[in-house]
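Lab manual, section 2.4: Encoding a predicted structure.

Procedure: take the sequence of the chain (318 residues), apply the prediction step described in section 2.3, and record the output as structure tokens. A sample record is shown.
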Amino acid sequence: MQTHPQLAKKLNLLYGALINPDITSHVQLARCLGVTKQGVSKWINGTETSPGNRIPVTQLQKVADFFYLEPIIFTFSYEDFEPVVLDVIERLAVDKVSKSEKLSLSLLPVTDLDIVGRQEELGVLNSAWERVKFNMVQVVVFGGMGKSSLVNKWLSSVSDGNFQGAKSVYAWSFSWQGFESEEHSPGDFFIEHALEWFGDDSPDDGTPFSKATRLANLIRASKTLLILDGLEPLLTAPKSNSGEIQNPAVAALIKELAADNNGLCVITTRLRIADIASFEDSRVKTIELKNFDIAESRTLLKKMGVYGTKKEFDYAAL
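Recorded output:
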């Protein structure tokens, strides 16, 4: 296991810089990681059987994501570590004063921003967006487990920094079907609406593939944050070809962006998208939302107004 010299000093620098306003102490870091404060202290001070100055390999990527760093940066000496952190601070500060030129988020479903847990997933989204680490992120879980809530919470956090320099921020939800017409499927309606919004002169013209190609090029022309919520109405039902996108234009667009993207496309879906399986190397990241643990379940039940004893809460949380 690699060592991380002067780890305490490095963490205190990150806390004090407010790179992640939700993490300004060992206690908050431990809470976000789902470990104890004593566990974080052991990373720094070590134990009788293990040396200090080491973040466990199982936690290293998560900690790095929380602070927009690459894991290897923690192996640097403090003298080399500090300039990297200062560069992150400067970059975030520049992004905060650079406002997006175009913004459309009103079509996303309304959700409560006071979500329970999900700090690890928020860290992955931060990493993917700030460091352009991936072209696309798909958030996968069955209905009612908080896909849209997670994305709305993340959008709220990055909006405080003007979306880290995005020139365009565009969101679309396929979960509302009231705007579907006999002439347009939900996928075709989205493609034409997006083409018009991004400035295409003739959004109705061309084959599905040509429309998708034009839209992909418009999206890639600058740093764009694209949110596609609730893609499952366009996917085949669970069977041998489960998760394939039925609309050819949407399928082509998503494959284009998975292959090459100057910004980030975030998709929420109940099923993994089969069309992008071949891009899950270093281009597409999949976040599969896990069930809440017992502590998180208790918090969620209390937040919903449920009353009871600890034993009753623990039983209900199972």
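Check your result against the sample. Confidence is low (pLDDT under 50) at residues 178-182.
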